[in-house]
Amino acid sequence: MKKGNGGEKMTQDTTVLLDERRIFKPSKEIIERAHIKDWEAEIEKGKDIEKYWAEKAEQFEWFKKYDKVLDDSNKPFYKWFVNGKINLAYNAVDRWIHTEKRNQVAILYVNERGHEKKITYYELYREVNKLANAFKNLGVKKGDKVSTYLPMCPELIITLLACTKIGAIHSVVYSGLSVGAFVDRVNDAEAKVILTADGTYRRGKIIDLKKISDEAVLRCPTVETIVVVNHTGSKIEISELSGREIFYDRLIEGEPVECEPEHMDAEDPLFILYTSGSTGKPKGVLHTTAGYMVGVATTLRNVFDIQDDDLWWCTGDIGWITGHSYVLYGPLLLGTTTVVYEGAPDYPDPGVWWNIVERYGVTKFYTAPTAIRHLMRFGNRYPNIYDLSSLKILGTVGEPINPEAWVWYYKNIGKEKTPIMDTWWQTETGMHLISPLPSAPLKPGSATKPLPGIDADVVDVDGKPVPMGKGGLLVIKTPWPAMFRTLYKDEQRYMDVYWTDVPGGVYSAGDMARKDEDGYFWIQGRSDDVLKIAGHRVGTSEVESAFVSHPAVAEAAVIGKSDPIKGEVIKAFLILKEGKKLDTNLIEELSRHVRYELGPVAVLGEMEQVEKLPKTRSGKIMRRILRAKEEGKDLGDTSTLEE
Ligand code: PRX
């Protein structure tokens, strides 16, 4: 039952430019439909940054209008929409219930078992208010922190919106992380309340989240209340709950369905989201209210050309920034319907996503290159079973997409009609920064150009622009509204990691990139010790400390090893304690141990026992040398190597 996508094909211009490089031009139909019909003209418009973003702030209802668009008097601690008063949840939910969207589905939850739940804007409004009131009863006040360890489920969305309604700061712990990562994050955030669930569906199994959470909270002294969502119906009895635990359903029972939104200052903190950096301690990336709202709503609307009849699906987990910005906040701020999927991309079979696209008529679809590469392995058999003709625009995020995967996605999912938005951004940036718009000519593997209102460049260590085609450091030269404002409780690290590396007061993204003759950006990967495993950021030192916390390991150094599907996996070099040998038993035990500490995101490729590790005189491990050796490359400059 293969049907082609309706509409006109994009034109493919195969002129060879620098290397062999294809250009895919948008069809007339796509341009005609788009909010922004002229990409270059919009980029020009965006050059007056303050004017551009002020215009975008008009879309919201403010309790009090701001006095000033941007305050840059205390760089790099920028402020946006100074003295404005606004509430995100009010704009994402309440605002719509007085419009024709009142009974429109806001959240379309579906899981790998095919179970679905549809929640309209009006229903969402009531649920958010009930929980917001219940939070108040628990003593949660503006500025208090609430952490979640929940699967992709409606209650997670309701929780985050309830927090923003009353001004509590949320901090989501990805449900694929494990005890060690959970404890670090919840303690750093000093969370007062935690929400967890009995379990989550994954590849036909139910993963017991409560068990992990139970173990973790023993080491989290600030937590006063643990709210348990009965998600998989695994029948936990009330008698099994401890004194500080309560079921979600019971908590909201009888709560009023109205709740006044807190009038938040534009710069009041909205959420903390932890991400890996070059040292062992995860970084608490802090986002604030109004600028974040303006940034995510604008980029989603423009990049994916969100229209009233769209059905939007971003497969990212709310445990990461992609889910915060583009599963939850962006779509609801635009009043669109957002698909929330819980499960794996290949269970019960690798057609599960395409089945959902067909069943509901998804129009805009956003996923990660690693998922595309994984599904690509099964060929075009599965995409061909389903009618994918509803799709209008596709997108990717999280890591560079190799042209082969881009073209597979384009041909087999988009049927050569849908442009692909390769969006470059980060937890820190909050919103897309480098990405095409649907009216842009595309080159597979390039995120194209900085978005309107964004000024990016590729420079050398002295901050000088590098010549065309040469690799360098990716920097953002002017502030943008959804930028993070600091690292929670660590302003010094905020300065050191992002703002002092490159001279000139620019934001240093930690990525390598090059620009081509058309000014297109080609992102080449991280310039620091952060791995990208299946699009997730994993810090080498976090993995190393997980290894050395095992009694058999004396020292560890890890590097990323390229992997055809995950992009990178971990290769570990281990110095073992006296008399220990890295046999199959120990390998298994260490795998289990690291997984226990960090969760399944830390995908282990290989382990190798070594006698010594390459170090500088000051004792820093030179991972660069290990990488070069592993890849059989020249060791480069070894003058700082001790031995
Ligand atoms: O290296 C870049 C890569 O992902 C990093 C940010 O990771 P994270 O904060 O976890 O956020 C991922 C989702 C926004 C970047 O520093 N990255 C992200 N998108 C792309 C990318 N690399 C190349 N192309 C992209 N489109």
What proportion of the residues is helical, as a percent range?
25-40%
Measured by DSSP, the beta-strand proportion falls in 15-25%
What fold name stands as the CATH topology of the largest domain?
Rossmann fold
- Bound ligands, each once: adenosine-5'-monophosphate-propyl ester
Structural class: alpha/beta
Our measurement of the CA-to-CA distance between the termini, rounded to an integer number of angstroms, reads 65 Å
Rg, alpha carbons: 24 Å
Q: Report on the biggest sheet.
A: 8 strands, mixed
- State the CATH superfamily name of the largest domain: ANL, N-terminal domain
Q: Which CATH C-level class of the largest domain is it?
A: Alpha Beta
The total strand number stands at: 32
Report the total helices.
19
Total individual domains: 2
Quaternary assembly: single chain
Judging from the principal axes of the Cα atoms, what is the shape?
A: globular
Order of strands across the main sheet: 14-13-10-8-9-16-17-25
> Uncertain regions: pLDDT < 50 for 5+ in a row?
1-7, 11-20
Whole-number mean pLDDT: 93
What is the CATH architecture assignment of the largest domain?
3-Layer(aba) Sandwich
